[in-house]
Design brief:
There is one protein chain. The protein is of the alpha/beta class. The protein folds into 2 domains: 125 residues, Aspartate Aminotransferase, domain 1 (Alpha-Beta Complex), CATH 3.90.1150; 256 residues, Aspartate Aminotransferase, domain 2, CATH 3.40.640. 38% of the residues lie in helices and 14% in strands. It is built from 13 helices and 15 strands. A hairpin with a 4-residue loop joins β4 and β5. The N and C termini lie far apart (58 Å). Bound molecules: pyridoxal-5'-phosphate. The site of pyridoxal-5'-phosphate has 14 residues, from α5 and α8.
Length: 408
């Protein structure tokens, strides 16, 4: 008889977004005339800039003629796109070989799949709160014990608490973890790790022969030039870190789908030789993945051109202006807000020690604004609330106005 992967049964009910939708639908049913304002979704809203559209169109046109048509491409990604990414890193002082870069259909698939090249007996550490795919993919792979409803955490995992007192950047764990997931700039807290903070993790990883899986999906939102936009800006990271990134948030490719992973040849783990981890990821990708869309890759190349970078920058600036409006608007009424300066997420401390869900209901009832309860990202998110700067300006201004006028 066929058997399911019983690890799926361990997953704590992934109920965050369904529960938000349920509460909003119930509110809307009771108040059918009332408008709802959304400040909760991490989805891009602005159209792609002209140079990127031109790149995508050119990609389509190539498919129209037998002379330029292409079918399956290089499974690791188009060489010119990998070259362009290597150049982007080089401009930031990071020297990578294009065969250390793997083009993919996004950072979420990569951050979910990367664990599959590591043994199931690895001890894994996560930031708490965190983007859910890191934890869930490791539960499904069988690296956790059972889920504890009371604590909101899994047995067998290490949780690195991101709290107000550590600026939401944790210290490396006291235990010897084997895999360590870090996301900076962070979703959901909007915190960004500095060189010194990342250096501590790199030193920890080198000492323990651990691997850091570094999600840099929001790197382009960093405005402070002193902050690292890649973990490879930190000494020693080539020997211990994999970096995952995406065109989704920086170039509006959430629906187009394009990302990349960097697996350095210098990266070594227990019993491995230099280059072996890179070969494992190549083997994994060539077995399970047939390459990113050739059209999307033309679009990605256009986004990396000087003109494309400049135009994508303008879209990022637009979202960061949204972030500023949310921050300053809510600070004016006395709310405590973190993030939103070098990241498109704002991390609001709930007033009067309300729980994340209590604040969700209060905000919905009094202002009709919908955000995301921090507790949905992990137990240490309790008492916090995530607001997103992705949205149309008019909608953001209205939502902030609703809160400042009506929140009691
Ligand atoms: C949005 C997001 C991604 C991007 O995922 P894609 O699959 O490339 O769209 C990756 N990591 C984090 C933390 C995100 O918030």
């Amino acid at each position: 008889m066929a058997k399911l992967n019983s690890n799926y049964r361990k997953l704590g009910a992934g109920y965050l977004f369904p529960e938000i939708n349920r509460r909003v639908a119930a509110f809307q049913k009771k108040n059918p005339q009332v408008r709802i304002y959304r400040l909760g979704i991490g989805n891009t809203t602005e159209p792609l800039p002209p140079s990127v559209i031109a790149g995508l169109r050119a990609g389509v046109d190539l498919l129209a003629s037998p002379d330029t048509y292409s079918g399956y491409g290089d499974e690791q990604g188009e060489p010119d796109l990998r070259e362009a990414l290597a150049l982007l890193y080089r401009q930031r002082g990071v020297s990578l070989n294009p065969d250390e870069i793997f083009i993919s259909d996004g950072a979420k698939p990569d951050s979910g799949n990367i664990q599959s090249i590591f043994g199931t007996d690895n001890l894994v550490a996560f930031q708490d709160p965190a983007y859910p795919v890191y934890v869930d993919s490791n539960v499904i792979a069988g690296r956790s014990g059972t889920y504890n409803n009371a604590s909101g955490s899994y047995a067998g995992f290490i949780y690195m608490k991101c709290r107000e007192k550590n600026g939401f950047i944790p210290e490396p764990p006291a235990e010897k973890a084997d895999l360590v997931y870090l996301c900076s700039p962070n979703n959901p807290t909007g915190a960004v790790a500095g060189h010194k903070e990342l250096q501590k993790f790199v030193d920890y990883a080198l000492k323990n022969r651990a691997v850091i899986i570094f999600d840099a999906a929001y790197a382009e939102f960093i405005t402070d030039p002193a902050l690292p936009r890649s973990i490879y800006e930190v000494e020693g990271a080539f020997e211990c870190a994999i970096e995952i990134n995406s065109f989704s948030k920086s170039a509006g490719f959430t629906g187009v789908r394009l990302g990349w992973a960097v697996v350095p040849k210098a990266l070594v783990v227990e019993d491995s030789e230099p280059g072996e981890v890179n070969r494992y990821w190549l083997r994994r990708q060539t077995t399970f993945f047939n390459g990113a869309s050739n059209i999307a890759q033309r679009g990605g190349l256009a986004a990396l051109s000087p003109e494309g970078q400049q135009q994508c920058r303008a879209v990022i600036d637009y979202y960061m202006e949204n972030a500023r409006l949310i921050r300053e608007g809510l600070q004016k009424i006395g709310l405590t807000i973190y993030g939103g300066v070098n990241a498109p997420f704002l991390w609001l401390k709930t007033p009067k020690s309300l729980s994340s869900w209590e604040f969700f209901d209060k905000l919905l009832n009094e202002t009709q604004v919908v955000g995301t309860p921090g507790s949905g990202f992990g137990p240490a998110g309790e008492g916090y609330f995530r607001l997103s700067a992705f949205g149309r300006r008019a909608a953001i201004v209205e939502a902030v106005g609703q809160i400042t006028a009506n929140l009691r």
